[in-house]
From TrEMBL:
Cofactor(s) demanded: (R)-lipoate
Domain of life: Bacteria
Gene3D superfamilies: Chloramphenicol acetyltransferase-like domain (3.30.559.10)
Residue ranges of domain 2-oxoacid dehydrogenase acyltransferase catalytic in the record: 164-248
InterPro entries recorded: 2-oxoacid_DH_actylTfrase, 2-oxoacid_DH_E2_comp, CAT-like_dom_sf
UniProt keyword annotations, A-Z: Acyltransferase, Transferase
PANTHER family reported in the protein's UniProt record: DIHYDROLIPOAMIDE ACETYLTRANSFERASE COMPONENT OF PYRUVATE DEHYDROGENASE COMPLEX, LIPOAMIDE ACYLTRANSFERASE COMPONENT OF BRANCHED-CHAIN ALPHA-KETO ACID DEHYDROGENASE COMPLEX, MITOCHONDRIAL
Organism: Streptomyces durbertensis
Name listed for the protein in its UniProt record: 2-oxo acid dehydrogenase subunit E2
Amino acid sequence: MRPPVTPVPRARRHTLHFLHHARGAAPVHLDAEVDATELLDHRAAAARPVSVVTHVVHAVGRVLARHPDANAAYGGGGLRPRLVRYPWVDVKLTLDRVVDDTRVVLSSVLTDADRASRSFLQARITRLATNDPELLPEFDGVRALRRLPHPVGRLAFAAANRTAHRHRHLGTVAVTSLGHRRVQRFFSHGGTAVTVGVGRITTRPVVRDGELAAAPVLPLSLTFDHRVLDGAEAADVLDDLVETLRRPPTPEPDDAAR
């Protein structure tokens, strides 16, 4: 008996186009852990608590602004290699949604994340995660790709993500999370020079001032495109991100609009 063979669902075509586009990268993977005690204490005491992913997106925006060589993109192919360094930080966030009865990964770009407040970012993320993706204008491009024949869609995806315009669709840095499940570490290339992966917070033994203690630990991964930056700079970015998330979050005004 032969197993059934079916076409890849149209709802996942954009993922295939992205993977074809991203295959030229040279990904290298790093990982670290964050003592999330201060972060969770802040969430518990906040009048307007935000998710761990929002804290990470907020921190990534600030950190990438401090590391402009990592907030960049590679372009030009093999004949005329060049880099684009962005003066702003746009975070591409992946979302697990259901479209046409198919579980898919969608992504949306949170612009100017280096200047946005946590509450502003949370409002945007909640909107993307809870509303019908078929009705959100942020996913117009995905719906357009779904309607195109596969070869035409691949060309359209490549044209839309040329170096000069890539940040509009892929961001300047990517954040992806599997922390809703018992995932410690995973490594993903989001089509950007730096991709940050967020795992599940678990209680782990840590050493504080020479003493063993139990603490909530947030695992982070960082995948970087070796064409854009080298390992030492990528390690600096990850270390800065760990330190930023480890410290008590900075207060925000009650009327923060952005």
